[in-house]
Amino acid sequence: MRRKGLLAGPSYVTGFALSKFAASVIKEEKKEERKRKRHQNNEKNGDLNGTGVIEGTESCIAEKKRVIAGDGGAITDGLQEISEGNKLEIFLDVDDDPGLDASGVETEWCLPTDTLVAVRLMCEQFPKLDQSSVRPFVLRSQIYSSVSNRTTADRELEELKQQQVLRAFKLNSGKDDFAVMLTDDYLKQIECAKQWIRSKRPEEDTAVFDWFRTHVISAQTGTSIRHSQLVHLLSQAGDVKDKQISLLINSGLLVRLLADESTYWFAIPSIGSLLKSLTQGRKELTSFLSRRRYKEIIQAVLEKKRLRTSQFDMRFHIRDLLGSGHIHLVNTPVGPLIRLSND
């Protein structure tokens, strides 16, 4: 029986994801990298011929170096491959790619980490929710279900946070619950919150949302921030008033800690109803498995069922419970089997 979706183990990373989804990720990120390098080259070498290439260098450019994802598969004719672990260095003619630096050589480009590929893929598969403005996010436990080594996953998550590729948020649905969202998606959430406040209270000064996006998000990559630090960062753009900070709280971008009122959690606006679905869906799924004779069910059969108490689909909850250890996978001749773990 064919295994559906991304659930666990390195088979996802080396198989489906890197062969299909990661290809589009790599293409997008390499395109942005070329634009950035052409811009830096234009500033460094002011004498350009209008095409982004210094005059007189075209004849000297014979090939360029690119590093792309690969797993030992076939390479098209005319390309020379050099295997380096899970990477393939490919040399091809400059004429095949119009986006070149003046030197004709692109510096080594790193592959997306397993964690980043997992996050992007699960965001693509995020359930379509009615009447919800929340951008796609994944749970940290779901990442654990895809990246087998938790230490590696935690390290890569921290690196991606420092690089401002991802944002992490503490959730009040459980002591170990964290949501992870792409930074670009979170910036869109901030803009939506700004527009919502403007529609409800047009007389309020919404400039604080721009200050928050520009000065706070770029400087603070953690899950919380002190009140004094928040005021300091916002003050770089203008005079900060208490009512402006209240706007950030009312819009759902900040949550004040009950135990320490001088500290705020960064938050995802309008996520409250989804947290209710998360907790209720967990209870419904574990209760369903506990009532079965052997507390187990074939994965393909389980994925076809629908939860009555959750807006999320079954796959979302299976990944969550796999990563948290409440359930585990058992390989059988008829396909993967989901079994409730012994507490």
From TrEMBL:
It holds the Pfam family Stk19. It comes from the Eukaryota. InterPro entries: STK19-like. Residues 29-50 are annotated as: Disordered. Belongs to the STK19 family. This is Serine/threonine-protein kinase 19. It comes from Riccia sorocarpa. The lineage of its organism: Eukaryota, Viridiplantae, Streptophyta, Embryophyta, Marchantiophyta.
